[in-house]
Amino acid sequence: MAKTLKTSGDYTVQAGAGYDSGSGLNTIKLDARFVRIPGDLTIDGTQTVVNSQTLTVEDQFIETNRNNSTAGTEDSGIFFNQGSNNHALFYYDAGNGEFQLGTTTQDATANTITNITLGQLKVATTPSDANHATSKSYVDGLLAGGAFAIGFRGDDSAVVDVTTGNSVLIAGGSNISTAATESDTVTVALNQNLNDINSVSTGSSNGDLILQANGTGSIVVDNILTFNSAASTPTANTITKLYNKTAAGGGTGVFFVNSAVKSGAEDELISKSKATALAIALG
User: Fold this and answer.
1) For the chain, what percent of residues have pLDDT higher than 90?
2) Quick check: 139 and 127 in contact, CB under 8 A?
3) Which DSSP symbol is given to 161?
């Protein structure tokens, strides 16, 4: 038989001394198959324990840290009980202004998270939007397929920083290959010997190729220096220009010009046999 209790004012049920402060030792138990509260429910205690197996919430959003009134000073999030293991945790780190997830030795009574071991986050392999997080396998696939580009900016603060012990490899086979799509200049400094280099050429038409030793060092050719083709006589100036032409009176085919020698007229280096013959002839 249904019963209704009506009152014109507030109605209080007391269970033991200290009920006003929440420190009473007695319990109020509602023993029913279903308990329904049609109005709002406010719980002013320090802890709410829900022992049900399934929690269903109609609200679209769940608010935590409700009474926080200061900006950006309190951490808040969700703990996941892992039994004897450390708790799992997903929370907003107010001090760093970022979301973090992982495991912690702290529990849900903590006010600030000071101990966390960051965990792994698994996402869809292929993102469907440019702003989606993606997986390592997706990025590895782009790198392996050559569809991923790393940009290096010139002379400003936006740079790619390579830490100690790491390196950036710019390579194409056994050669070094670079490409620029803007006006910035990329400088590659080589601090080691170059090996397996078959050809060095200038990048501009009729441009000079300069080999310059450091300080008082010299350009050293350890093996044979070959002139592949005959050259036209260059214009003489105050430096010596050495070049190859059809052999003439000197018998070598190696010529030179220098404006300070014979008024810049072309001359040929003389061979040992020619020099010997001239020495004999001149006595």
Assistant:
1) 46
2) no
3) -
Residue 144, helix vs strand vs coil = helix
Q: Are 262 and 248 in contact (CB under 8 A)?
A: no
d(CA 108, CA 85): 15
Q: Which range of residues forms the domain containing residue 237? A: 228-283
Domain assignment of residue 234, yes or no: yes
Residue 268 pairs in a beta bridge with: 255
How far is it, in rounded angstroms, from Cα 167 to Cα 189?
A: 13
What are the residues whose beta carbons fall under 8 Å from the beta carbon of 235, sequence distance 6 or more?
Answer: 257
106 part of a folded domain: no
Higher pLDDT, 158 or 102: 102
Mean pLDDT of 178-194: 56
Burial of 257 (0-12, 13-18, 19+ CB in 10 A): buried
- Residue 190 has a pLDDT of 56
16 in any annotated domain:
no
Give the CA count within 13 Å in the CB-facing half-sphere of 212: 5
Alpha helices in the chain (DSSP H): 136-145, 272-281
pLDDT, tens digit, for every residue of 73-109?
A: 899 999 999 999 999 999 999 999 999 999 999 999 9
Alpha carbons 269 and 250: distance in angstroms, whole number: 6
